[in-house]
Design brief:
With about 575 residues, chain A is of the alpha/beta class. Chain A has 20 helices and 17 strands. Chain B is built from 5 helices and 10 strands. In chain B, a hairpin with a 2-residue loop joins strand 8 and strand 9. Classes of the chains: A alpha/beta (about 575), B alpha+beta (about 200).
Chain lengths: ~575, ~200
């Protein structure tokens, strides 16, 4: 059965951006049902999901083995409720096939606040939310992957399979085994848990993350599906490396994506050229956690410049904006620099191992101002361990210094500074995984102090909502009991929790009450001897290393970049910069 | 300069005007049809489209002109690189920018229609006054050029450009008057000095 768009005509004309739901994009692969029909599901809107590189890689890996990989994104409420009223189940974009008829749905969980969107999609698809309710029915396997999968326990009761780590081959390996067994039999599950990166909540197996050593030879799509309506990052993306040398102690991505694996300039150039030719985009984004650290960035840029057609611009990291002036035409429209000092004083930056000094920021800003930049975006975090009022005041100080640098010379445009201040959230597999979250009152008073200290400085300040931070913290470090809260919250009407204007605080508060679970139990400081809900996962980085990093944080000792000397995080054998695998 | 006629069907009828422009731009890039850009600090590709079509209305008569020296088979190159619903039907090399947004004066449409009525009586009226959402009234009769109903298909010609009347709005006028429902509204032709 397929869904006929003609029958949805009136609904499509009533909703915002109907082209989100029609498919038929240029570059979308021609699909037909196969031995294993997979639908890559993204728990956010089309525009957001279409910008995600990970789901393109996973889909490519499935297609490469001759199977079908379709896509589905969360419909906005207008379309979602329209489908419900019409009794039309949520369908995939390519085949227009109801999600219920696929063999597996793979949800890419990018952040915790999209958990309810996964339930929304299952619900719209007519699929029972809980695994045990699906047991005797003919339903697709529900899988998740992505960064949230490193602590899957909060969603463990909803899903059949969790993919942890690199998705380049393990997802497709599971597809092969599904085909071998004909369906999701007991033997199938017994066999897939032997693979690295596969966790089956029903079996509660121990698992080591899937790791691709040779990123250069790893699968990467030659073409992107060009979205119907403009996506949030509507450009070609190449992943210059995976992992990050820096090891900032709050940063989950910096630990779970270890070791650092750069791609060669040759491969990247080939990938960029093929994407540009196949999509018609005029911009290439050099993605990674810290592109400025790519070992031979200058060489890569030169190679890209020599091979890409004229008029194609590159999105380059801000800290190095000055280094390439004249060598490569930066996008003329780019006037804004972005820095993430994360903390207002050197002391606190040492605590979090954020290896960036005020001098570096000032130097980079000054030379960028000299070549015409006139706006600065600064990212900070509030509520970090050991933070004092002095650290908050430091944020204002950095703004003043940047202003001073700008005013030293006569410039044509007025300077714009914007400061974004998020709340520190302790995340699994970081040295700060044991820390407590600031209380709502603390967050509020810190935000007020910050607002007061920046008043009159001509700085635009954005800050995040305290309740959102609390919710994210609970979901990030939650255990299996939290699943009940998520389910109740969804039933109370919570979806799109990551959007300030959609967040339904009452729905969540009610869900905590109804389940009898206190969120405060989850945001407290964890004892170092406590067994953490995600301890059964071997992410590669050892707990001893995380603990030693925590100790060093409190002692204010910087560990620094691991590009030049190995810090012994536990992945030495897999890490080329540590002298392990090449 | 190349002027061409293209479709907006097969799902492309749900694209906004701006998204359509983006798709034409990218199609030309993929087809390696070099389009000249405007001078200045923010160069824009010189792509000139006709007036925006209302969302959801299909068309086999969209007109567009691009500034280019390309002299190969434009239709083939374009269609090999365009999305399903945006296909070139015909093209012409022209000397000057046809300014379709201004030079197209009338457009022909078709729609499925299930409530028979006397089209002649409708056309014989000297005035057809509509009130918009802001309460302003307007006589749209001068913007209606023809109207026929045959075998459940409505064919009509409406003004375009300065004299514009949206086909979906026109169908709504008929619906309000005669009941029934217009379906599958499609723009089938455009009339102007430079159309073909």
């Amino acid at each position: 059965m397929t869904v006929n768009l003609e029958n949805l005509r009136e609904l499509l004309l009533r909703v915002e951006k109907p082209s989100r739901y029609t498919g038929g994009e240029f570059g979308a692969p021609a699909l037909r049902p196969s031995a294993f029909d997979f639908c890559m599901c993204f728990p956010d809107l089309y525009e957001v999901g279409m910008s995600n590189l990970g789901i393109k890689i996973v889909a490519e890996s499935i297609l490469e083995r001759g199977y079908t990989a379709d896509f589905c994104f969360t419909p906005y409420k207008d379309f979602g409720s329209g489908l419900k009223e019409l009794g039309v189940p949520l369908y995939s974009l390519g085949l227009k096939k109801p999600l219920k008829e696929f063999d597996m749905l793979g949800f890419s969980m990018q952040f915790e606040l999209s958990y309810t969107n996964m339930l929304y999609m299952l619900d719209l698809a007519g699929i029972p939310l809980l695994r045990k309710e699906r047991e005797n029915g003919n339903y697709p396997l529900i899988a998740i992957g992505g960064p949230c999968a490193v602590n899957p326990e909060p969603v463990a009761d909803f899903v059949d399979i969790v993919f942890i780590g690199d998705g380049e081959s393990v997802d497709a390996d599971v597809a092969d085994l599904y085909v071998k067994h004909g369906k999701a039999t007991k033997e199938f599950f017994d066999e897939i848990i032997k693979l690295d990166g596969v966790y089956v909540p029903a079996l509660s197996n121990k698992v080591r993350k899937a790791l691709i050593n040779d990123l250069d030879g790893a699968i990467f799509p030659e073409r992107f599906t060009v979205p119907n309506c403009e996506s949030v990052h509507d450009r070609a993306v190449i992943e210059v490396m995976r992992g990050c040398y820096r090891g900032c102690r709050f940063c989950q991505a910096g630990f779970i994506y270890r070791p650092v694996r750069p791609r060669s300039a040759e491969t990247l150039t080939k990938q960029a050229c093929s994407l540009i030719a196949n999509t018609g985009y005029d911009e290439v984004s050099l993605n990674s956690l810290s592109t400025g650290d790519y070992p031979s960035l200058r060489g890569l840029i030169k190679s890209l410049k020599n091979s890409l057609p004229d008029g194609v611009t590159l999105a380059l990291p801000s800290l190095r904006a000055d280094s390439f002036d004249g060598e490569f035409a930066q996008d003329a429209r780019r006037v804004s620099l972005t820095f993430a000092p994360e903390a207002g004083t050197q002391r606190l930056r040492d605590v979090i191992n954020k290896d960036i000094t005020e001098d570096e920021i000032i130097k980079a800003a000054e030379s960028a101002f000299d070549i015409g930049y006139s706006a600065v975006k600064l990212y900070f975090m509030l509520g970090l361990p050991t933070e004092t009022d002095e650290d908050l005041e430091g944020i204002g100080r950095i703004c003043s210094i940047i202003k001073y640098c700008y005013k030293k010379k006569k410039r044509n445009k007025p300077l714009r500074i914007s400061v974004s201040c998020s709340t520190f959230i302790p995340k699994p597999f970081t040295p700060f995984q044991w820390e407590r979250l600031s209380t709502q009152d603390e967050i509020k008073s810190k935000q007020e102090k910050l607002i007061a200290s920046l008043r009159g400085k001509g700085v635009t300040l954005n800050w995040s909502d305290g309740f959102t931070a609390k919710l994210e913290a609970v979901l990030a470090r939650g255990d299996r009991n939290i699943g009940k809260v998520i389910e109740l919250a969804y039933k109370n009407g919570c979806i799109f929790d990551g959007w300030d204007k959609e967040l339904n605080k009452d729905g969540w508060k009610k869900a905590f009450e109804e389940s009898g679970i206190s969120p405060d139990e989850y945001i407290r400081e964890r004892d170092e001897n406590e067994i953490l809900p995600w301890d059964f996962i071997d992410i590669g980085v050892t707990k001893e290393f995380l603990l030693s990093e925590r100790r060093k944080a409190y002692a204010g000792i910087v560990t620094g970049n691991c590009q030049n000397s190995c810090k012994g995080c536990g992945l030495q054998k897999q890490c080329s910069s540590a002298g392990g695998k090449k | 300069m190349i002027s061409f006629r293209h479709t907006k069907t097969d799902g492309a009828e749900y694209l906004s005007h701006l998204d359509l422009l983006r798709h034409i731009d990218r199609t030309l890039k993929r087809a390696r049809i070099a389009v000249k850009t405007s001078e200045g600090f923010h160069p824009h590709p010189k792509i000139f489209m006709n007036n925006p079509l209302g969302l959801g209305i299909k068309s086999i008569a969209e007109y567009c002109a691009v500034e280019t020296d390309f002299n190969g088979d434009f239709k083939k190159a374009f269609n090999e690189n365009s999305p399903n619903g945006i296909k070139c039907l015909d093209f012409k090399t022209v000397d000057r920018e046809p300014n379709f947004a201004h030079t197209i004066e009338r457009c022909g449409y078709s729609a499925e229609w299930n409530a028979p009525f006397d089209t002649e009586e409708f056309l014989n009226r000297s005035k057809i006054v509509v009130t918009d959402k802001r309460g302003r009234t307007l006589d749209v009769r001068p913007r209606i050029y023809s109207l026929e109903l045959k075998d459940g298909t409505l064919s009509f010609t409406l003004g375009c450009g300065e004299n514009n009347l949206r086909p979906d709005l026109f169908c709504e006028i008929l619906q309000n008057e005669y009941g029934g429902k217009a379906g599958n509204i499609t723009k089938i032709s455009a009339y102007g000095k430079y159309t073909f």
